[in-house]
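Hi W., the S-adenosylmethionine complex you wanted:
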Amino acid sequence: MASRSIDTHAAFFKPYLRLGMNLLDCGCGPGSIALGLAKAIAPGTLTGIDREASQIRIAAESAFTQGVSNANFLEGNIYALPFPDNSFDAIFSHALFEHLQEPAQALRELWRVLKPGGIVGLRSPDWGGFLIAPSTPELEKAFSYYKWLQQQNCGNPYVGRELRGLVRESGFTNIKASASYQCYEPLSEATEYLALLIEASAKVDGTVEKGWTDERSLTAMSRALQEWSQHPDGFFAQAWCEVVGWKR
Ligand SMILES: C[S@@+](CC[C@H](N)C(=O)[O-])C[C@H]1O[C@@H](n2cnc3c(N)ncnc32)[C@H](O)[C@@H]1O
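Structure:
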């Protein structure tokens, strides 16, 4: 996530940014995209919220190191934002909605804190559209397990394709949807994260204890990802879906 930037991951939203805007980034993580957004709207203020205190600390440190003075980062939950109604000119959220159990409820909260005439921009992956080569049964298993894990955690690996409908049903208008692919180069950028998540799932999600899998399978999936990342022909493209909409 730390290697993401406004140009690589928020290009769909950039044309709508204006100098002096008051902008919220929901689920900002380590803030790598948020700091680019802050620079694009200066002297406006970027507020980044995330429910993980550790992410907020990293984002605030990066802002300090990079000398970005128009960004504030605070702990917060998208379902209960600590802001009055009509606070922001624009709201951005990247790679969060696939983790939400109640996306419509989250959008109601975004609507509340967005000013009339304001814009919302969301981007999430859709795991129905990823491309991998060369494939092996163990690698396929690893990707299936990752998607299944996200569903077990009440997320939705296919939320990307649903963003347009979710935003429309929440009352936003003039909606524009688009999609793009990200190719991971080097492959290890993606495989290390996936292998870590898969290995940690025994402890974090209790998947072995619950009898959903066993240590041997987890190790085999993780190894398949690591071997694939060294393959000279290894290719991984991930589909991202994007949507913007306005509060009239
Ligand atoms: C995959 S990361 C994306 C981070 C960043 N937007 C990016 O794309 O690099 C998702 C972030 O959303 C945060 N998150 C998850 N559920 C949340 C919630 N209910 N409210 C606020 N943040 C949340 C997580 O802590 C995590 O930092």
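The first helix runs from residue 6 to 9.

W.
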